[in-house]
Sequence to fold (324 residues):
Amino acid sequence: MKAILVHQPGGPEAMTLSDCPVPQPSPDQALVKIAYSGVNFIDIYFRIGLYKAEAPYGLGMEAAGTVEAVGANVKDLKPGDRVAYAMNRGSYAEYAVVPAWQLVKIPEKLGFDQAAAAILQGMTAHYLTHSTWPLKQHETCLVHAAAGGAGRLIVQMAKMRGARVIGTTSTEAKAEVAREAGCDEVILYTEKAFDEEVKRLTNGRGVDVVYDSVGKSAFEQSLNSLRPRGLMVTFGNASGAVPAIEPLLLNNKGSLFLTRPTLAHHAATREELSWRAGDVLGWVASGALKLHIEKTYPMSEAAQAQIDLAGRKTIGKLLLDPAK
Ligand code: NDP
Fold:
């Protein structure tokens, strides 16, 4: 089968399209023939070596496809089942073996492309808005990169929960997309100091929670945007990893709370995974959650997909088609 492998962390050229044997499922795994693989920023962190893996390693953390074979212990899946999954590395490939408990069945109404586009970023938006800070009606949140893959979904779920949403984007075209997703206000954070704008928009109070996927370049202003005892959720590094801070900084800025969560710890049991994936795929099927699939790249152009994502060129979701 064809698969993208990284032999040495580095730039986009570190990704090589390779011929590999089709993996065989162990007793608790299933073999999935991948229809679409989602492209996520985390794939870039693995490719550049910010997140570590033993070389040579595969990339890609989510996919949708068809079960081809199951291991001896797998009872609730069979060949032909349509499934999706997230947080199992190696989906930039024609086939992947995945622990059976991580596979969720795709509702009939959904295509493979929609399931692959929704599962990872959708469950991320779900845990951020339902668990990390379970948003309540009339609370206000700040969502960075609000037109991005994760951002657009966080905005929509925050609105479902009745919150007021302030988004940030780099361009007016992205601001328009963020407004369509539900943002009540959008700040062009490349043009204005967003902490000052947030204070102005909240009559000096600040927001209850910041969902910050941008990391290094936004961190301090994100803290400044919070109300006293608000929560800073730093959940990504799009501009680089946030450096070490003194805990006293949180005191000085208003007895703030700080967390650095990951989806892996919020979909760690079958029960929690089923809750989040069931909600996300169900909302997409019902039309309550709207996806925007910007582009599907052939797997041979996976490097270009990552270049576009890292270059802030994209809105919504990017997919790979491993058959091309
Ligand atoms: P996006 O589609 O959101 O793309 C990243 C966006 O970040 C860009 O479009 C851009 O939006 C913004 N950005 C700001 N500064 C930079 C910069 N210096 N370089 C590049 N982009 C920048 O990607 P994803 O939805 O895949 O991921 C978003 C973030 O969420 C990532 O940091 C990812 O790691 C994180 N994430 C974390 C998870 C977790 O559980 N912790 C799970 C899923 C995602 P703009 O042009 O509007 O500024």
About this structure: The chain has a mean pLDDT of 97. The pocket of NDP is lined by residues 40-42, 121, 124, 145, 147-151, 169-170, 174, 213-214, 217, 235-239, 261-263, 309-310, 312, 314 (CB under 6 Å).
